[in-house]
Amino acid sequence: MFPELEKVHDDAKSSITAITDAEALQAWETAYLGRKGAITLLLRSVGQLPKDDRAAFGQRANAIRDELEGLFRDRQKAIEDIALARSLEEGEIDVTLPGRTTPTGGIHPATRTLRQIYDIWADMGFQVFRTREVEDDETNFGLLNIPPHHPARDMWDTFHTTTPGVILRTHTSPGQIHAMRRFAPGPIRVILPGMCFRYEQISARKEIQFNQVEGLAVGTNIRLSDLKGTITAFARRMFGAERKVRFRGSYFPFTEPSMEVDVECFCEGKGCSVCKGTGWLEIAGCGMVHPVVLRNGGYDPAVHSGFAFGMGPERITMLKHGITDIRYFWGNDLRFLEQF
Ligand code: PHE
């Protein structure tokens, strides 16, 4: 037995039981286990002992050190527990602290515009009629007065599937055929919204997928003036009552006559980068349904007439919000989407 070792051992064990705070515990560790602590100093003094005692002394001192280190860890844990319990008991809950927010989703800007478009057309008596995105060549082109090898096919670069004759629709116009065949010979007033696909080089102005909203009215005595009035009413609701609208003669194989619709740019005719200095923005193609198409849909062009239009909601959204690159729409970049 080495009384000096046992004394340090007893002192350390009895003094640690009274310790209840981290600071005092730290001091205890320094006093006994630190670089100049009692145990450390004793261990270092082994060399001055008579040779025969050294091994036993060293062994006992190491055992005491290990034991004290264990006591230190236990006490440290106990003090932390006490501190936590105390803070829970004493501490008030600060009800003014802001809570963790749950991120909420929003409506995609294209969907937003689509819904606005539905509302406006609904007010004018147009119902939504949905048709397929995967079409056959015949409905997408042939029945719309665009036979194979017609040069106008160049207007719609096409994604073909591995099934011959089955393609991704390049526009919503084939929906005209589906609607007419469903309702002929009755009157029609529908819009046909949905995704279209074109085999294009993607750029700031062109995407390979985009929405269109087709419109179709078929009945008796429907005239070009009805088309112009209806489109103008739409544009005023969409862009504001003062906004000017202009119709330009154009060409589509499935309408005759055909026109394109421009609205006055937000730069009010001054000319900016969005309108490329022209002061006008193109928002739709339209025209009177071609007699061939009416016949393909099951109507008699001698009795019935109709108008059709096709507009691009992404285009309209870009104009309304000054978005300069169509690639943002399907890029899934939250920094873009979160702004709406
Ligand atoms: N389908 C035409 C296009 O994609 C737009 C259009 C629709 C034109 C209806 C006239 C009538 O360019």
Structure description:
The strands form 2 sheets. Strands 1-4-5-9-8-7-6 form a 7-stranded mixed β-sheet. A two-stranded antiparallel ribbon has the order 2-3. Helix 1 (3-16) packs parallel to helix 4. It has helices spanning 3-16, 22-32, 38-44, 51-90, 109-123, 137-140, 174-183, 224-239, 291-297, 313-321, 334-337; strands spanning 127-128, 134-136, 166-168, 188-197, 209-219, 245-252, 255-264, 280-289, 305-311. It has 11 helices and 9 strands. The two termini are 82 Å apart. 40% of the residues lie in helices and 19% in strands. It is of the alpha+beta class and 340 residues long. It folds into 2 domains: 2-90; 109-337, BirA Bifunctional Protein, domain 2 (2-Layer Sandwich), CATH 3.30.930.
Q: What's the structural blueprint in terms of helices and strands?
A:
Blueprint: H1 3-16, H2 22-32, H3 38-44, H4 51-90, H5 109-123, E1 127-128, E2 134-136, H6 137-140, E3 166-168, H7 174-183, E4 188-197, E5 209-219, H8 224-239, E6 245-252, E7 255-264, E8 280-289, H9 291-297, E9 305-311, H10 313-321, H11 334-337
Parallel strand pairs: 1-4
Antiparallel strand pairs: 2-3, 4-5, 5-9, 6-7, 7-8, 8-9
Helix pairs in contact: 1-4, 2-4, 3-4, 5-10, 7-9
The site of phenylalanine has 11 residues, from β8 and β9.
